Amino acid sequence: MKWWIILLIVLAVVLVAFIILAIVGSKMQKKQNAQMEQIKAAAQYINILVIDKKKMKLKDAGLPAVVLEQTPKMLRGTKMPIVKAKVGPKVMSLICDTKIFDSIPLKQEVKATISGIYITDYKSLRKVNLKQDEVPKKKGLFGKKKRK
Hints:
- With 148 residues, the protein is an alpha+beta fold.
- The protein folds into two domains: 37 residues; 86 residues, CATH 2.40.50.660.
- It contains five helices and five strands, in the order αβααββββαα.
- The chain has a five-stranded mixed β-barrel with strand order 1-2-3-5-4.
């Protein structure tokens, strides 16, 4: 009889926790949607030359001091995708969306959608032939002997 009561109490606690998480999650989703709408409203299409891209801490990225002051202290130590790019005559550090960070080509000119210092999307300006871009594979000891 006692284990039924304990089981019911545990189920009630789990159910209450699930309901609270659902409510908090929906509020956070609404906030994120509002922020994405603001980012899309302020977006501009700019031609940039991607110089370098790394995942680094915000304080080491060379971002303006205002950006560092506005970020929460916990996020300053986390690694963010940073893209160093030449925008017009200036070389700038920009924060990139994690979804597109891996696909941004290095040392190429792209047309990027930028909102402030945040890159949300890009399109390649020049189509690159993949066969020319491939690096020849290094041949080991046996590959060199076969060639000889």
